[in-house]
Specification:
The chain is of the alpha/beta class. It has helices spanning 16-27, 34-43, 49-53, 59-76, 90-94, 102-110, 124-132, 143-166, 180-191, and strands spanning 4-9, 30-33, 80-84, 115-121, 171-175.
């Protein structure tokens, strides 16, 4: 059996976690959310200045924590993983200073043909509105932190997709504005 890795990224509030969960159930994959991992670690006492300001954490630390978690999850479920929120920066994704990033590890471990990257696009206005009304009481949904998180996504995460395409990876853009069920129907067509 081939292990399938399906990754979702998008601005805060774009529904990437929801869609990753839908795909997890639909394809029998394990669901993994980077943001949830960081919130869990923070609740356990792990913290960095970046986390407290709504900025993305150091790519090397993120890569180390994420890779460790993904290895464990694939051992538990060889069918694969549906990932929400990873590939946050070029360095985390592609490495730096001779050190490979998450893409290199995923490619070498599972093969390029088994990797699918979905980017859920959503306007800044809609992302801000959704996060303000999410009602989950998450610290990172604070309006001031949201401004920082949206800026971080646009300047540090969005460029990852141009690089992925340039390297021949399968990147699929999805409109995040429709109802979540409609978005999932679009995504399912790309998974078949």
């Amino acid at each position: 059996m081939q292990t399938r890795i399906v990754t979702f990224a998008g601005p805060p509030g774009s529904g990437k976690s929801t869609q990753a969960q839908f795909v997890s159930e639909y394809c029998g994959l394990t669901y993994f959310d980077t943001g949830s991992m960081f919130r869990r670690l923070k609740a356990e006492g792990f913290s960095t200045p970046e986390m407290d300001k709504g900025e993305l954490m150091d790519p090397a630390t993120t890569l180390e924590l994420t890779t460790k978690e993904l290895k464990k999850l694939v051992e538990e479920n060889p069918a694969g993983i549906s990932i929400s929120g990873s590939l946050r920066t070029l360095e985390e994704s592609f490495g730096r200073d001779g050190r490979g990033g998450l893409i290199k590890w995923l490619d070498e471990t599972f093969g390029k043909e088994n990797l699918i990257f979905f980017r859920i696009n959503l306007s800044k206005e809609e992302a801000s509105k959704r996060n303000a009304t999410r009602g989950e009481g998450r610290q990172d949904d604070d309006p001031e932190l949201m401004k920082t998180r949206l800026k971080e996504y646009n300047t540090r995460t969005a460029p990852v997709f141009d690089e992925l395409r340039g390297r021949g990876y399968r990147v699929i853009d999805v409109d995040g504005a429709p109802r979540r069920e409609e978005i999932f129907e679009t995504i399912k067509k790309h998974l078949e």
